[in-house]
């Protein structure tokens, strides 16, 4: 299950993050707004870049790359990251960025702080923020369907389907709809888990499965990675709910305490802070157990990312 060489998650992450940032800077490029033909409006591109660049944990791209390496059995240097994995990693991040832009709008969560800076609608206006989110969503699928042979057609279709399902009514958008309808409503633990499996967990799970789709894994490994993705997806939200209570806005980079202020059901309000912490660790154990039965040779990056997301402080 593990590679023979000592694994350093911080060093691994730094290498891959540098490549992801460079790729995002290149693909969401400012000169696209000044192209003679087909260029995007300057204001729109500025809002898109503001939403994507210079901020965020980039957890989802890292999960794509970690799963891709586990599926291929190779751990290349960041400079040699396969094109298919890099495009999949950036596509997931664009979908995540678009979702945050829309979630922060006054008609949704009405937030003014994201990643330690003003939200996109505060900076550029509501209409520009809506369009920037729409354009980021479209760009994600454009990255997965390049004109050249960087991604074989079969894998293009598989990646697009995974991402579309995770972002749509059976995933992130559906979860957000349930969330908006649940303000002031007493949900059961089962209902709360289902909401967050869609709203938060679906895209995290899809990140793992898109990484696996960049390679060729057995049915056993695919099922194990599905379980791993489901566990960390739910664990991420449990910890998010805990941090909303225990951390301040400066630490989080977003407005703290909003769940309680808006009377939203959370794992903390339902289980209590201590039990929520225990539940997060139980989900981490589930994720690591899934990797152990995957049959994959090297899952150290996936293990490390699971521990990082559960034990994070911001």
From TrEMBL:
Entry keyword set: Isoprene biosynthesis, Magnesium, Metal-binding, Transferase
Enzyme Commission numbers on file: 2.5.1.10
Residues in coiled coil: none
Domain of life: Bacteria
Family recorded in the similarity comment: Belongs to the FPP/GGPP synthase family.
Family matches, as InterPro entries: Isoprenoid_synthase_dom_sf, Polyprenyl_synt, Polyprenyl_synt_CS, Prenyl_diphosphate_synthase
Protein name per the record: Farnesyl-diphosphate synthase
Enzyme class, UniProt record, top EC level: transferase
Presence of keyword Secreted: no
An example Gene Ontology molecular-function term: (2E,6E)-farnesyl diphosphate synthase activity
Biological process, per Gene Ontology: terpenoid biosynthetic process
A GO term from the CC aspect: cytoplasm
Cofactor(s) required for function per UniProt: Mg(2+)
A Pfam family of this chain: polyprenyl_synt
NCBIfam families: FPPsyn
